[in-house]
Each structure stands twice: as C-alpha cells, then as structure tokens.
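From the pipeline queue, job 12 of 40. The input is one protein chain; the requested action is below.

Action: predict structure.
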Amino acid sequence: MNDNFSESNILKAILSSNDLKVFWKDRQRRFLGANKSFLDYYGFESDKIIVGKTDENMGWHVDPIPYRNDENRVLNEGKTISASRGTCIIKGELRIIEASKMPIFDDEGVIVGLVGFFIDITNSIRELDRFRTVAYLDEITGLPNRNAFYEEVQKYISSYRKYDTDFVALYINIDNLGNAINDFGHDFGYDMLRETAAKLNKLLGNDSLIFSFGGSEFVVLHQVVDDDLAPISDSVWNIEEKVRAMLSSVHIFKDHSYCPGVSIGFAEFSRTMSIEMMLTAARNDMKIERKSITV
C-alpha cells in the first residue's frame, strides 16, 4: 500500500472532516469519544461532556428509542445501519440528520463497540421548501416560530403517549421591552430580541427547543429524561433560575443601558393533557421578578 494511503492517514482524514460528525461507543452504548466536528456541532469544548453517557443521558433526541434500537442491532447482530434519518436538538432547534453506524470487532471477531457518523441535512431539506422555511421562522430572531411550535410539539406528545416521557413548556416574557422600544427605538428592541434568542440557545439549546412567539415572548419545550432524580418542579425551577439570571443582566446598546427583567412560568403536559391548556397554565404561572430601565 502507498504510504500516503495508510490506514492511519485515511482515518485522520475521516476524523478531521468538517461534514462528518464521528463518534464511537462501547457495548453499553456509552460514548468513548468523538471527532472535533461532532464536538463543534454541539458546542462542546471537549469530549469529557459526553464520555460515559448515552444518547438518553444527553437528552438531545425527543424520541431516543429508534436510535437505541439501531445501536442494539449493530452491537448484538453486527448489522450496519446506513443513512438512517432522524432529528436531534442542536442549539435550541430540531435539526434533521442522517446517521450511519457499524460494529467494531476485536482481533477475535467479537463485537466490542460501534463507530458511527452523521451529517446534518436540514438546510438541504429547507432548500427544497423555501416557502415553508419562511413560514416557520421568526424574521427577527431567526428562531422557529409559533407555527413551528405546534408542529414540533406533536413529537413530544407522541413520545409521551408511547413512553410516558413527560415534558414542560416554559413561557418567557422580556418585561417592559415595549417601553424600551418607545424610548430608544425599534433597532434597540430588535437587538434585544436577537440577543435574548442567542442567550437562550447557548444556555438551553442542547436538550430543549426554543421558539419565538412574537413580540417579547418565547416558549421553551423541555423533556424530562429518565435520569432526572429531582421532581419535575425542582428540575424546571433550576432551569428557570438560570434563565432569569442570564436575561436579567444589564444590556448596553447605543449608549443606553437596559436591565430588562424577565417573567417566567411553566406547566407540565401530564397535568393538562392539552397544548393550549399547558400554554395557558404556563402564562398564568409567570412571576415577575423586577422591571427597570435606566438611561
């Protein structure tokens, strides 16, 4: 074999690919590592965040069962799964991916784990349907909008009905944004909304979906995974406090300082069994901590 085409050089080329998100797991489906493209895709600085965990632990699939079934076939039957299409939560958005997985054998032919890779085909799908993309995205923040919410929440309901996996809706309102726009102009308001969307994505985007409901309102869908030991309320209150602390910081734009204040409420699907009732309950649960604007 030409030394330039040694197995190690070929492997390096694959692992350094920007398009292929490569990962490898042990017999228990726990991550052992991933390439830089995979880590960058999720916004992880190192693989320490994923090593020893399963997809279910990470919470980035609304319905993790098809992925688990595919991997069990690879590990138990030696099957190769090619271009299996599914969805994954990335930075607060449900992205469409195609994943391939294959077994890893030791020198004696025993399956010791699996290696897989996936590509993100969301943009390609959207290019085929530009009108739908515009209809489902908020034009100011770029987040999925209310139309997208009512479509994506059906996946959460389906998972709840099949696996009894509960989920919550967090309703978030940026307080007094309207007054700030009146005082400082629409550019200020649009900047605030875009910054809020970016901050929510950074804080919650790996296990929650974030939607713009228009104006100063956002809704977050968060699924309660099996390894959540605390009650649902405690788990969500922890998220709420992180969001409140992050969004209540002073924002400076065009020589104006603005301390927005934020109202947050949440409701569980299992307690309402209705999307509209869940949203109404979350709105009613909103508690205003503080509101202030300074110049």
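Job complete. The longest strand covers residues 93-105.
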